[in-house]
Design brief:
The protein is of the alpha/beta class and 362 residues long. Helix 1 runs parallel beside helix 9, helix 2 runs parallel beside helix 3 and helix 6 packs across helix 7. The strands form four sheets. A six-stranded parallel sheet has the order 3-4-5-6-7-8. Strands 11-12-13-14-15 form a five-stranded mixed sheet. The longest helix has 17 residues. It is elongated. The protein has twelve helices and 15 strands. The chain folds into two domains: 246 residues, Dihydropteroate synthase-like (TIM Barrel), CATH 3.20.20.20; 95 residues, Sulfite Reductase Hemoprotein, domain 1 (2-Layer Sandwich), CATH 3.30.413.10. The chain is 42% helix and 17% strand.
Length: 362
């Protein structure tokens, strides 16, 4: 069990629900663009949003953004401790820094004291590319694995903050190498009780990022490691939030509206199943009434095995020759035409949410 940190109304660690994070990719100085992305992320299920505070213009924009943001915001700071203090004074909910790169101990102390007084937690972010030279040399010489090196480096940074009485700390140790990232988090899990922000950095475009993050973060989460997460994607930021929430949903850790399962098809398939499954997904995502409905939906390729194989589904479709069978919990409800199949499934879910019993047409 990790210690717990509070970021406004969001709890991290201590057994709390795992929050999903993402980061803006527009200049923070552009208030309108920043707020548009924040709202997109919030709609996609993001709980915390990080933004770059890299200069004075970004710092000056913070009060307007913070005042209108629907979710707590995290300021990403590198090198300039004065920007960290400016972000705190602007009302930021959390900082992300690497204490070792913001200057001498006096500057670290100034940030720690300001954050402590304001009740602002700090995430120590150590990436494979930000290791101190002495630590990096140990990795290159084979004395330390990259994973353990990142973990040890992060603990050293945490001790620096704790020297000044600051303990509201979250740690992240990310690399693009999945096994080394896993080793780093396992090392921290065994050697500290700080809440851990997990992620694979520079994971690539959508397909690669989902595979890398699913492999690494899924492994950690199934072992009980990870208190908050980000799935990093080179692409639309809302994809990160959607992927993070879906990963937690698939692992049974947090609901995220209807979960769609579909079969991989076989020689018995007599319908364009991929097209139908995609249509079902779009229909469910666009229906506001079903957005928070925790249920399972199945789209299966044949009526022979489909309903039985998907007997856990609250509502499902199974393809026949020229028709679909609408079913619930493995029991047939009625036949519907391909044209009305998606709408019939959505209506059945809406009725189920309202507590109405399914109608069976024999």
């Amino acid at each position: 069990m990790t210690r717990q940190v509070k970021v406004k109304n969001i709890l991290i660690g201590g057994g709390a629900q795992i929050p999903v994070q993402s980061m803006l990719n527009v200049p923070t100085s552009d208030v309108s663009a920043s707020l548009r992305q924040i709202r997109k992320l919030e709609k996609a299920g993001c709980d915390l949003v990080r933004l770059t505070v890299n200069d004075e213009a970004a710092a000056k924009a913070l009060p307007d953004i913070i005042a209108k943001s629907p979710v707590p915001l995290i300021a990403d700071i590198h090198f300039d401790y004065r920007l960290a203090i400016a972000a705190i004074n602007a009302g930021i909910a959390k900082l992300r820094i690497n204490p070792g790169n913001i200057g001498d101990s006096k500057r670290v102390k100034a940030v720690a004291e300001a954050a402590g007084k304001a009740g602002v937690p700090i995430r120590i972010g150590v990436n494979s590319g930000s290791l101190r030279e002495d630590v990096k040399n140990k990795v290159l010489s084979g004395k330390l694995s990259l994973g353990e090196a990142m973990g040890r480096h992060a603990l050293g940074e945490a001790k620096l903050l704790e020297r000044f009485g600051f303990r509201d700390i979250v740690i992240s140790v990310k690399a693009t190498n999945v096994p080394e990232t896993v080793r780093a988090y396992e090392f921290l899990h065994e050697n500290c009780d700080y809440p851990l922000h997990i992620g694979i950095t520079e994971a690539g475009t959508v397909e690669d990022a989902l595979l890398k993050s699913g492999a690494g973060l899924g492994h950690l989460l199934l072992k009980g490691i990870g208190d908050t997460l980000r799935i990093s994607i080179t692409g639309p930021v809302e994809k990160e939030a959607e992927a993070g929430r879906k990963l937690l949903q698939f692992l049974g850790l947090r609901p995220y509206g209807p979960e769609v399962v579909s079969c991989p098809t076989c020689g018995r398939t007599q319908v364009a199943l991929e097209k139908v499954a995609e249509s079902v997904g779009r229909a469910l995502r666009s229906n506001r009434e079903l957005k928070d409905f925790d249920c399972k939906v199945a789209v299966m390729g044949c009526v022979v095995n489909g309903p039985g194989e998907a007997s856990a589904a609250d509502v499902g479709l199974a393809g026949g020759k020229g028709y679909f069978l609408l079913f619930s919990k493995g029991k047939a409800l009625r036949r519907v035409s391909p044209e009305e199949a998606v709408e019939a499934l959505v209506n059945e879910l809406l009725a189920l949410k309202k507590g109405k019993k399914a109608k069976i047409n024999k």
